[in-house]
Amino acid sequence: MASHIGIMGLGTMGSALARNVASRGYKVSVWNRSHEKVTEFITKYGDQSFYGAEHIEDFVESLDAPRKIILLVPAGAATEDALQNVVRALSEGDCIMDGGNAYFKDTERFQNQLKEQGIVFLGCGVSGGEEGALYGPSLMPGGERQAFEYFEEILGKIAAEDFSGKACVAYMGKAGAGHYVKMVHNGIEYAEMQMLAEAYDLLKRIYKLPHDEITEIFRGFDQGPLDSFLTHIAVDVLEKKEGATPLLNLIMDKAGQKGTGLWTSQEALTLGIPTPGITGAVFARGLSSLKDLRTELALKIPTQELAPVITSADFVKDLESALYLSRILNFVQGLELLQAANTEHHYELNFPEILRVWQGGCIIRATALKDLHEILKQAPNESILKSTWFQKKVQEHFQSHRRVVATAASHGVPLFTLNANLSYLEALRSSVLPANLIQGLRDRFGAHGFERVDEPGNFHGQW
Q: How many CA within 13 A on the CB side of residue 122?
């Protein structure tokens, strides 16, 4: 019996997604560069729902025509190599979906190359990690509409559900739109993780709270407006112990990264969109890798210990407010970047659908997305910054956010995302900024010119 779909790559995500697809009643052919993984997979999960192919030609021949293949290998060289191997065995009309964390420009290049051979290519962001891939991920497909239609039925069945029970999958738009949306999703994810880490650091370093008490504070956060997947699993991480020792105390304070946060920041800089919370999180990871230098400087530049002036109970309330407002700003910055990209790349993005798809399965799913989704349903192309809902939330949480950042500054605790997001908000609400001095300096040394507030035109100063 021919397979309905093929999956290339049996790493963590590939093997989990293959099992998800099979659980929906589909016959699945699997292939991996190392055939030992195929053998192990078939031995473990059986051959009734799966066909383990040894060679690419065998893999392709085992599929129903037109063939549908999901590629789940690391982005970059591994993706390029897998595509070259499989394409030579495919026929016109076959379709490939790349479900890796590909760079959107690579996706667009593959689309153009394969189109010349009559092969349809879909770039699809997949979020949710191993658990999401197995039980229901958030799916962000983009490319030719025809490519999405090839996979629409299967994707709809394997996806997670949003807050109303609808599948967390939707056509994102043209070209590399799917992987672009996933890239921005990951940038928001960087900022979300960083702000939670900063909250943990503040409670530990300033208030020196016992580990178990910090765990309970995070548990309380997860039961309120900060309810989200990342807040929930932060409790899991805090709870985990080896004997009587919290595992977190044994984990080296050096954060890794695979590049999607960096790409988000690079795109923001290219398009001139400020994303300080996201970019601050990227820098924080880079600085965390300087462990030896940090250890040396900690001895040479000590921080004076001060007693906090806010009680721990009041600070926790302020911290919850600051985290909530910062979370909204993380999403706002991501959406502002997506709106600019939509204009630049002509993706035809559906912004309400993006927020709906993020409501289930994905790493950044959060209760706050329900309100944000409703706002964009009413005004799909308007900035959330202009909404009365956002302005009300600022009034509710602004002062708490300020107190948290001020407390951190007075105690020497770095805040890459919470502080950056506060400055972002302060700048947005400032009708006058000191950019006039910058323009004056640029004109003084480079004759770049400037505009005036009292008359139109471009002027030079007689310095």
A: 31
What is the domain range of residue 10? 5-171
Helices (H), 165-259: 177-205, 211-222, 229-239
Residue 376 belongs to a domain? yes
Active site residues: 182, 189
For residue 44, what is the domain's CATH number?
A: 3.40.50.720
Do 39 and 186 belong to one domain? Answer: no
Cα 100 to Cα 102: distance, rounded to the nearest angstrom: 5
DSSP track, 71-134: E-S-TTHHHHHHHHHHHTT--TT-EEEE-S---HHHHHHHHHHHHTTT-EEEEEEEESHHHHHH
- Per residue in 157-216, pLDDT tens? 999 999 999 999 999 999 999 999 999 999 999 999 999 999 999 999 999 999 999 999
Q: Answer yes or no: is 177 within a domain.
A: no
Both 278 and 410 in a single domain?
yes
Cut 0.70: pTM above it:
yes
Residue 422 CA to residue 276 CA, distance in Å, equals 10
29: helix, coil or strand? strand
> Would 176 be classed as within a structural domain?
no
